[in-house]
Design a protein that fits this description.
By secondary structure, the protein is an all-beta fold. It has 2 domains: about 120 residues, Jelly Rolls, CATH 2.60.120.10; about 100 residues, Jelly Rolls (Sandwich), CATH 2.60.120.10. The chain is built from no helices and 21 strands. The strands form 4 sheets. Strands 1-2-19-16-21-15-14-13 form an 8-stranded antiparallel sheet, with no helix packed on it. The radius of gyration is 18 Å and the shape is globular. Bound molecules: (2S)-amino(carbamoylamino)ethanoic acid and manganese (II) ion (MN).
Length: about 250
Amino acid sequence: MLFHLGETRSSLKTDHLLQTPDTFIRTPLAGSPNVDFIVHTAPRIGAGFTQMTVEFREGGRLGAASEGIERFLYVLEGSLTAETEAGALAHALAAGDFLYLPPGCGYSVSGAAGSRAVLIEKRYQNLNSQVNHEVKLEVIAGRESETNPEPLGGDPDLLVRRLMPDGLEWDFAVNTMTYAPGAALSQVEIHVMEHGLLMLEGGGIYRLGDSWYPVMAGDFIWMAPYCPQWFGAIGKTPAKYLIYKDWYRHLL
Ligand code: UGY
Ligand code: MN
């Protein structure tokens, strides 16, 4: 047993959370038998969404989402199947695959023992209150490696893959960002959107507010709206993260 002597890289400040795997605590949640949840961020910390890592045991199954809640899943390890409300197999997902489930679709998701996935949940903010336009949201499934990489600001060493389609009907985005060794964001960003971020590969230095943190694969970060943020990749292999942001909605 390794004693940490009260030390951790994890840090909670008013405008951000860095949560490293040594501080993860697992919990079951009602309606999802044989699934362990690591709740990384949630409204009780001030976030407008929930991001969790879900870990499936034998017979693990995520029940349908609560009313009005949309879901985004990204498979980290193993294999998942999504079933319709009637029990028909709708999608089979492997590592690197993602699935968007709109509110009310009633899908449940099962995982083979040992499978792990990112689960993001958000109360869908309808377009109708702002734009007179009827929206019918559909289930979307895809594979990260098959989405088009776009250089951020023309930098070929910093590639963004947009997993959700780019349309005003969706109120959030989830992207992956891949930094070649030594690549960095070209500016410190301060913006209204908040972020949930999971480091997938490699590492580097994350500036959050007035703190600079070494980060690596497995770390989670929540950034509140307007949290100053910057990342530079360090190491001999690329650094890659999955990042959520709220998107395309007026705030009043
Ligand atoms: O999309 C973003 O705001 C992204 N560039 N932020 C970040 O990587 N911290
Ligand atoms: Mn940002």
